[in-house]
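One chain shown below:
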Amino acid sequence: MLNAVPASPPVHTGLPTARAVDHYAFTVPRLDEAVAYAVDVLGGRLCYREGPVEDPSGDWMTRKLGVHPRARAQVALVRLGPCTNLELFEYTAPDQLLAPPGPNDVGGHHLALTVADPDAAEDHLRRAGTVRLGPAGPPGTAHRWFLTPWGMLLSVRGPLRPDGRRFVPAPDPHPTAVQSALGLLGVEHVGYTVADLDAGVAFFTDVLGAEVVESGAAPDTGPDGHRPPGAEQSRRVLLRTGPTANCELVQSGTGALRSRPPRNSDIGGHHLAFYVDDVDAAAAYLREQRGVVLMGEPETITQGPIAGDRWLYFSTPIGIQMEILSMPDGSLPYERQTTARRATPGSLRWHDRP
């Protein structure tokens, strides 16, 4: 549970009853490998695993998740730092794409970490087999780029000074030993490459209620640049998405090899999930938004580690799949099996700024 500032009155702009980003989800080739890395290298806490998620004879997987009807998934939820949940998927599917999109491609993505000491963090990551991209650069270089063993991009930088606009991770009051070794302060943002940056920003601000924090019309090109080595220096916009998260949208490059985003079942597939108080009210609002397609109706999970979770996926006109959900945290079945807990918004609301 986060240490919350006094809750503000509900704000009726953007996604109704939204509290915060609930999780970032990524599809990986090997779930065991990704969970081990998130826990043993990044210092996360495994909350639960579930699966297989499948429908051997019907079309539920297509209707609800947008994947092949015979797709099959295993899922794990890892809490990373004080505010972030990572949901990791391993899919098998007849039409699965095995190569993830690159940073210039539509559907490219990265996770940006803030650490206390970038030099010490780099040493820690390299000892764990994480590949540093590009030249080492001078000490104190703000942005350093790495590749996980399965090919996901990580950005690492030192502490940020709070400016009252962007979310700035603060130290976890109860860090794991690995978090301390990495010096992890938290996840500063998730990044997505989109086909139309202006349309992406408009959707996040007008439909979801996000706020523009930073706009890069002339991107950095030096060692302190915001893009990984070898990637085109495209326009980017950083948005505040609720009280405990930022999202960076990047314009796809002229050299992009893919113009369509990956599906959930493809390696490198991903979605962005929002915690709301009322899934049905949020769904009714989204149903009226141009270009949004709801994947069926809200459902409540009745068994497994997160029984009681009410959720719904939806596709967006900007190519990023999203989810709304509401969980009865504090009474979920997985909590009887572990001391690890999901990060939750507590009493925070979307426009609070802790």
